[in-house]
């Protein structure tokens, strides 16, 4: 496996952890206040959880994808890792705001 694949896998796992924490806060707030904005955040988190779970599966357990990723070249590897990494940065920012 390549370093970029490992970094993308770590980013997907971190994203899943952050989304689980955020979802728990948003679910608790939705149950308390029934605000449509909070429901929107929950739906958003649910879609991102599915996306990152799929990325985790592809990065870790799908041999054809891993083979393609390794053979695709460094530019594709860095690009795909940056997509997960940028999402991680955005979720860290959202996590910090939510937990204040």
Report what the structure shows:
With 100 residues, the chain is mostly helical. The chain has one domain. It has helices spanning 3-33, 36-61, 63-72, 74-98. Helix 1 (3-33) runs antiparallel to helix 2 and helix 1 (3-33) packs parallel to helix 4. The protein is elongated and about 50 Å long.
Helical fraction equals: over 70%
Q: How far apart are the first and last residues' alpha carbons, in Å?
A: 38 Å
Number of beta strands? 0
User: What percentage of amino acids are in beta strands?
Assistant: under 5%
Structural class: mainly alpha
Morphology call: elongated
Main pleated sheet: none
Q: How are helices and strands ordered from N to C?
A: HHHH
**Which residues form runs of ≥5 with pLDDT under 50?**
none
How many structural domains are formed by the residues?
A: 1
Radius of gyration: 15 Å
Q: Tell me, rounded to a whole number, the average pLDDT.
A: 96
Helix run count:
4
Blueprint (SSEs and pairs):
Layout: H1 3-33, H2 36-61, H3 63-72, H4 74-98
Helix pairs in contact: 1-2, 1-4
Please supply descriptive tags for the structure shown above:
mainly alpha, 0% strand, 100 residues
Provide a quick synopsis of the model.
This protein is an all-alpha fold and 100 residues long.
């Amino acid at each position: 496996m390549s370093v970029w694949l490992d970094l993308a896998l770590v980013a997907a796992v971190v994203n899943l952890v952050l989304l689980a924490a955020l979802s728990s806060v948003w679910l608790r707030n939705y149950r308390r206040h029934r605000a449509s904005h909070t429901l929107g955040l929950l739906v958003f988190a649910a879609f991102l959880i599915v996306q990152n779970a799929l990325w985790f599966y592809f990065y870790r357990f799908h041999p054809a994808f891993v083979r393609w990723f390794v053979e695709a070249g460094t530019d594709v590897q860095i690009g795909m890792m940056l997509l997960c990494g940028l999402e991680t940065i955005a979720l860290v920012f959202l996590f910090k705001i939510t937990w204040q």
